Here is the input.
Amino acid sequence: MTLRVIAIDGPAASGKSSTAAAVARRLGWAHLDSGALYRALTLAALDHHGEQGAGSGSSWSAQRIIALAEELPVRLVLVGDVFRPEVAGVDVEEAIRSERVTRRVSELAAIPEVRHWVNVQQRDAALRHSAGVVVDGRDIGTVVFPDAPLKVFLIASPEERARRRLAQRGGRGGGRIDPKELRREAEALAARDQADSTRAVAPLRAAADAVVLDTTRLSLDDQVARVVALARDRLPG
Here is the structure.
């Protein structure tokens, strides 16, 4: 049986989640945002183990994080056609987008044992939904689903990604964004890129067989249409 998974990867604010969600709706598939599970774990760690992060004597050890995830539990729940993150039975989709979580999620995601745990949850979730799943993240096509029949790697200029992130965070729409704020956000995204692309485990990179799509000058509708066309070509029916 053909694995019905579309893997969409790329750096922060490249449009992965928005594109993946829209592609899933167009195809009638489910959407799974892998970053949401890492963020849910980070939220749980902050709430239950405090701010002391990874390192010597840390309360954020792999064993404690995974034990906490199993105990609470931290899990993905299919609601309609979207996998939502839950912590102790509570929907945390909004809480995981806080700046508090954003600052720390890369640190937790760099722990090999945590990545393995998350990967297992994602594979299990996708295999339970045979109609098809669109999964977005940073290592979906290279590590989690290396045999996915369609892999897409989204990129965009740092300035455009910063603009999108600020608009998303503040609901600014088409309003004017302070150039200093834009520069600070671009620098923060560059630091996140550096951390993700140089980590020892599952670094951010495009799979050798991924379709690289530059979304800098594309509307969301345009990039969704391109991915849907690829999907219908490679995964008919």
In short: The first strand starts at residue 5 and ends at 9. Residues 116 and 209 are 23 Å apart (CA to CA). The radius of gyration is 17 Å. The beta strands are 5-9, 30-33, 74-79, 82-87, 90-91, 133-137, 150-155, 211-214.
